[in-house]
Design goal:
2 copies of one chain form a homodimer.
Chain A: E1 15-17, E2 21-26, E3 29-34, E4 38-40, E5 43-46, E6 52-56, E7 59-66, H1 67-88, H2 94-107, E8 114-122, E9 126-131, E10 138-140, E11 142-145, H3 153-159, H4 166-183, E12 191-197, E13 200-206
Antiparallel strand pairs in A: 1-4, 1-7, 2-3, 2-11, 3-12, 4-5, 6-7, 7-8, 8-9, 9-10, 12-13
Chain lengths: 217, 223
């Protein structure tokens, strides 16, 4: 017997983007991908959230972990990058954006629980992907993150090859997201894909029923 | 380079395994037309230490029925020994080799009855005359036949791989290669899995045990 009305459970649960995010570089650019599920406990509170957030024209970050923490970091760095790019008079480097994210993640590592993958294109080094987990900063050929990433480490280890072109990278990202969304209860919805190269930035959505299917579907 | 990130998260964020001599592991079993292939790694860890780096986690329940052990070492081995005994009695009673489903049911009965006390997951696989090669998962007391099953802590990392790579109608060599690749990928990512790979192939002609040493395992792009 309940004597007090506490309201639905999900109002008191932390809102997390338990998620799957991935970023991969190719010769000439990067491809980022994410799922679209935001959960609070057992409830899905947003099934169409775009977790690929722009930090600058040609630099994006992928959000995972606590939704509030991740979004706040992205907004702060977006502001800092605007200021920085005015100061230097040109587009910022991807490494600079990643360093700004890393600085916040490291300084507040006890308070925050978010992991942002930073990826983009700049004139100096082309396409780059940086992981900033818990305040480290490392450039990698590709990075995966979020709760769904555990299920696809084996797949990306086996399938990644150096020297893939843009279409192959996009397919790799879509396949990885689809596999992770099938296995991880905290990932799902649609897949957002962002491709960045020297010509510009292209955002795409792959709806649930258009995602690749596997043997048991 | 990529390993750096995930080593960090193991050290600072995540659990480092139970300290009671548990197995935690990667195990896999897959059926093909005519038999089954089972595979496991060989690491037994207690906390951060590896207490046995060459343990064979593929345990015979009968001539043509094996089980793969994961979870708590003591619990898993005990279940396997009890079922091995029960199957001996049962096969004498019926006067012929037991069915794989019978072995799996015996394992399931123990796992379900003592589900609060035990923490082990056994995958049962084998060959019998009636239904050929079969793989059964018995996690937490359920009993389900599957084309293939993965288990243990390392299995999380390879769900994506097995989902993408599994195809119906693979033959014996392809299944063995699938098992070795899966184990290798899981052992690279899971701190609680490692060592060598044990492979057991069971078909109507008999049972074949094989060991793939660490340096003979398939390597991937960053090794």
């Amino acid at each position: 017997i309940m004597f007090e009305e506490t309201g639905p459970e999900w109002l008191s649960e932390e809102v997390k983007t338990g998620t799957t995010i991935i970023a991969i570089e190719y010769d000439g650019g990067v491809v980022l991908g994410s799922d679209s599920r935001v959960s609070a406990g057992d409830s899905v509170v947003n099934r169409v959230m775009n977790k690929l957030s722009p930090l600058h024209d040609k630099i994006y970050c992928a959000l995972s972990g606590s939704a509030a923490d991740a979004q706040t970091i992205a907004e702060i760095v977006n502001y800092q990058l605007d200021v920085h790019s005015i100061e230097i008079g040109e587009d910022p480097q991807v490494r600079s954006a990643a360093t700004l994210v890393k600085n916040i993640s490291y300084k507040y590592k006890e308070e925050l629980s978010a992991h942002l993958i930073v990826a983009g294109w700049d004139r100096r080094d082309g396409g780059q992907v940086f992981a900033t987990l818990k305040g480290l900063l490392t450039r990698q050929p590709f990075a995966v993150g979020g709760s769904g990433s555990s299920y696809v480490y084996g797949f990306v280890d086996a399938e990644y090859r150096r020297g893939m072109n843009k279409q192959e990278c996009q397919q790799f990202v879509v396949n990885t997201l689809s596999l992770a969304m099938n296995r991880d209860g905290s990932s799902g919805g649609v897949a957002y894909i962002v491709t960045i190269d020297k010509h510009g930035t292209e955002e795409k959505v792959v709806l649930g029923n258009q995602l690749p299917t596997f043997f048991d579907q």
